[in-house]
């Protein structure tokens, strides 16, 4: 029997940012319901990969393919990708002055619900759900009434990203350094949150530099991005080795292996 097609399948993806070729050849899979961690030195292209998947116009795909849920992801517009069940969090969530958080969230949720064939939520029902999810994430109710991320602290922005995810119930969530800027309770909240969402069937692609978070998430696979390619893949032991020896040591040992071959 053939293995089922992965939820996300990236093949030989090449991406330019401005004049620069940042991603040279990325190939990876994320199976439905699984959790994959992506590590890599600062500037190696992790956020570039996430934002390319989201369809950010700054990133130009110059080669390769991406399939998501059996469809050609690269042929879809950013909002169609979201409606197809892809969620990508920002490493530095921007503010959107003038757009109220609760209206933004309800509009996004109702668009995704429509794509799933579900009826829209009215303001009253939406607020009930949004408030209870916000409370679980330690976000004060008042932040629902403010403009999106406007004046939010760093940690509040990260929690607001998770609130969007909790409401949208995507098939795949890409979390870009969701732990940075969160206090200790916030990191614990992320781990519990991810576990809960996984039980509801969401797969995760998590970018992180921190072994403690990665260990707590119990990933199915760990990948290392280096010079625009997936240089190594493994299990939690790869994350432990990177945490212990650093990326530079890892590159040196790889070079030695290559020389010896
Ligand atoms: N507009 C741009 N023009 C030229 N280079 C860019 C542009 N935007 C990003 N880059 C470069 O692309 C490279 C990859 O950046 P990216 O943000 O994807 O790295 P990252 O792996 O997420 O790093 P970090 O761990 O610091 O978040 C960096 O060298 C960055 O300077
Ligand atoms: Mg980044």
Features:
four-stranded antiparallel beta sheet; binds magnesium ion; 27% strand; six-stranded mixed beta sheet; alpha/beta; 261 residues
Strand element count: 12
Question: CATH superfamily of the domain at 8-92 and 170-260, please?
Answer: P-loop containing nucleotide triphosphate hydrolases
Major beta sheet, strand line-up: 6-9-10-3-11-12
Beta-strand fraction estimate:
25-35%
Structural class: alpha/beta
Largest sheet: 6 strands, mixed
Bound molecules: adenosine-5'-triphosphate, magnesium ion
The averaged pLDDT comes out at 93
How many distinct helices? Answer: 8
CATH class of the domain at 8-92 and 170-260: Alpha Beta
Radius of gyration: 19 Å
Helix coverage percent: 40-55%
CATH architecture descriptor text of the domain at 8-92 and 170-260: 3-Layer(aba) Sandwich
Low-confidence stretches: none
Secondary-structure element string: EEEHEEHEEHHEHEHEHEEH
Give the distance, in angstroms, between the N- and C-terminal Cα atoms.
36 Å
Question: Do you know the CATH topology of the domain at 8-92 and 170-260?
Answer: Rossmann fold
Describe the 3D structure.
- The protein has 8 helices and 12 strands.
- The chain is α/β, with parallel strands linked by helices and 261 residues long.
- The protein has a domain at 8-92 and 170-260: Rossmann fold.
- α4 (123-136) packs across α5 (154-168) and α5 (154-168) packs parallel to α6 (184-199).
- The chain starts with 7 loop residues before the first strand and ends with a helix.
- The model has no long low-confidence stretch (mean pLDDT 93).
- The site of magnesium ion has 4 residues, from α1.
């Amino acid at each position: 029997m053939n293995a089922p097609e992965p939820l996300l399948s990236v093949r030989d993806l090449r991406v330019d940012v401005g004049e620069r070729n940042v991603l040279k050849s990325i190939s990876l899979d994320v199976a439905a319901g699984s959790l994959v961690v992506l590590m890599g030195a600062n500037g190696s292209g992790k956020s570039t990969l996430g934002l390319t998947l989201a369809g950010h116009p700054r990133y130009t795909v110059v080669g390769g393919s991406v399939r998501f849920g059996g469809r050609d992801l690269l042929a879809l517009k950013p909002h169609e990708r979201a409606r197809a069940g892809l969620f990508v969090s920002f490493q530095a969530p921007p503010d959107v002055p003038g757009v109220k958080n609760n209206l933004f969230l309800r509009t996004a949720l109702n668009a995704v619900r429509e794509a799933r064939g579900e009826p829209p939520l009215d303001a009253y029902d939406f607020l009930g759900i949004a408030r209870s999810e916000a409370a679980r994430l330690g976000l004060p109710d008042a932040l629902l009434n403010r403009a999106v991320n406007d004046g939010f602290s760093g940690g509040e922005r990260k929690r607001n990203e998770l609130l969007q995810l909790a409401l949208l119930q995507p098939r795949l969530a890409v979390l870009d350094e969701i732990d940075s800027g969160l206090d200790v309770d916030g990191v614990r909240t992320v781990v519990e949150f991810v576990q809960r969402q996984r039980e509801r069937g969401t797969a995760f692609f998590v970018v992180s530099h921190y072994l403690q978070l990665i260990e707590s998430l119990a990933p199915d696979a760990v990948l290392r991005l280096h010079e625009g390619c997936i240089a190594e893949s493994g299990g939690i032991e790869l994350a432990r080795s990177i945490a212990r020896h650093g990326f530079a040591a890892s590159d040196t040992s790889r070079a030695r292996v290559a020389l010896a071959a």
